[in-house]
Specification:
Beta-lactamase, six-stranded antiparallel beta sheet, 13 helices, globular
């Protein structure tokens, strides 16, 4: 009898535990984020189609074949479907009435396409931000590179092997992987374009999305303000967090500009772990939410500076601090143009905002290969352009210095630029690079006075390796050619 009682007690304890485990497994398997994922899926297609058509000036066929190849479930086909392209308004709507909200995006002069909120229609387009500035003076076609696009001297230095350079180009374009789609390759040495190649349907003016390469543009602008004393690396970010602390000091008030630029804020993870297209910055990218409000709502889960976690919100917090440092909304909208783009000839670059006028400098920039080449040249030249210092050498040192929290994982990240990780031994240690989804890279190699730009529309299982591309390009350089 005692054995039976003991068994019954054990069974009574096991059954609730088993039921709880089963319930937990069912909860883990159920996607509570599905409504937001569907809304973001529609919004992502709206933005990619809108920018493809009206920012990149590509055909609908090209957009479906390349821009939308990234999407696992695109809405409609080239022949039609539940989408609308409004050529007069330069806008796109994705979806149909009932169920998931129709998501809309509209092109705005000087900015590119902006995603509207789910409850907005094309009638709300006129209320979206716009940047109505005249183009930079002069005709780029008649201005010599790098300030313009006129390239006359294409001869190679004697120490560069033309066949090896072409082999490196073929390596970039003729991929074994069906998922890697190279659009353009630009190689600049000693300030001169020594190789340039484009895929069919792409030319020197074609703009495509930078994805996270935009972060390296953002840190350049922020560095200019730090150089002027209008921002400081080691001061706390100058804004209130949400929700506001009811009493005492908010622990997030100890997060500095350095922390967020090093991707070491200590804030809760929202842009990875399966939530990239369900919440977090995805709501601002693709669903019309505020990029600033969402970023300020994250909870602190680690001490700032102690853990590296690649998060779009860290960049967006730095960009919001930049906006506050500038202080004037119109000056803020014009800042990228006046301080950087127009100065170095980045005429084909559009930096986009959310519908509230806050730049989404973590991803939403459209540009071409040559403009990214110009950005790389600015860094290669120590921050000087045509004799004018635009960026201090101290700031360039900062972006190239490994974030302290990356020491255990390979010292692969600096200040919004990627570094050669400790386990990569086949390229110079001084190389550093931008990096964006779908294969967006601008690689700077100071020891060889070299900038390499690769633009892609990779999809599915990506994996284009920028350091292997660097290795292939360097094979064209004679071993006797003295590094800088």
């Amino acid at each position: 009898m005692k054995r039976l009682l003991t068994a019954l007690i054990a069974l009574a304890l096991v059954l609730p535990a088993a039921a709880h485990a089963q319930q937990q497994q069912q909860e883990d398997n159920y996607d509570y984020w599905r409504p937001q994922r569907d809304m973001i899926r529609y919004g992502q297609q709206a933005i990619l189609m809108c920018n493809g058509l009206f920012t990149s000036n590509r055909t609908l066929e090209q957009v479906f074949a390349q821009e939308l190849a990234f999407l696992p479930q695109p809405v409609g086909t080239l022949r039609g479907g539940d989408y609308v392209v409004d050529l007069e308004r330069q806008a796109v709507a994705i979806g149909a009435s009932g169920g998931t909200p129709i998501m809309r995006a509209a092109f705005r002069e000087g900015i590119g396409c902006i995603i509207l909120a789910p409850d907005q229609t094309f009638d709300d387009i006129d209320g979206l931000p716009i940047l109505d500035l005249p183009p930079a003076p002069g005709d780029a076609a008649s201005i010599a590179w790098p300030d313009g696009d006129l390239v006359e001297d294409t001869t190679l230095p004697g120490y560069i092997d033309a066949a090896a350079l072409q082999a490196a180009s073929d390596w970039a374009f003729e991929r074994e992987s069906e998922y890697q789609d190279t659009l353009s390759l630009l190689i600049v040495h000693n300030g001169k374009i020594i190789h340039e190649r484009y895929a069919p349907g792409v030319d020197v003016t074609t703009r495509t999305r930078t994805w996270s390469t935009a972060k390296s543009i953002a840190v350049t602008l922020i560095g200019m303000l730090v150089d002027e004393g209008r921002m400081a690396l080691d001061e706390p970010l100058p804004f209130d967090w949400l929700p506001r602390a009811r009493r005492g000091e908010d622990p997030r008030s100890k997060i500095t500009l350095r922390h967020v630029l090093n991707m070491s804020s200590g804030l809760d993870t929202v842009d990875n772990g399966g939530l990239e297209y369900a919440t977090g910055s995805g709501m601002a990218y693709w669903a019309g939410a505020s990029s600033v409000t969402g970023a300020r709502r994250q909870a602190l889960i680690r001490a700032p500076g102690t853990n590296w976690d690649y998060e779009n919100y860290d960049t967006l917090l730095a960009v919001y601090a930049m906006k506050l440092a500038i202080g004037d909304d119109q000056e803020y909208l014009q800042f990228a143009r006046s301080a950087l783009f127009d100065k170095i000839g980045m005429r084909n670059t559009l930096a986009s905002t959310d519908r509230f006028g806050d730049f989404i400098f973590s991803s939403q920039v459209y540009t071409n290969a040559r403009d990214l080449g110009r950005l790389g040249l600015l860094y290669l030249n120590g921050g000087v352009w045509n004799g004018e210092r635009l960026l201090s050498e101290e700031w360039i040192d900062f972006v190239r210095t490994p974030a302290p929290a990356t020491a255990e994982s390979g010292n692969q990240y600096g200040g919004q630029w990627w570094l050669v990780a400790d386990n990569v031994d086949y390229v110079p240690r001084d190389a550093y690079s931008t990096a964006g989804n779908r294969g967006q890279y601008a690689i700077v190699v100071p020891s060889h006075d070299l900038v390499i730009v690769r633009r892609g529309l990779d999809w599915g299982r990506q994996g284009f390796n920028r350091w292997e591309l660097t290795r292939e390009v360097l094979k064209a350089f004679d071993a006797t050619a003295a590094p800088r």
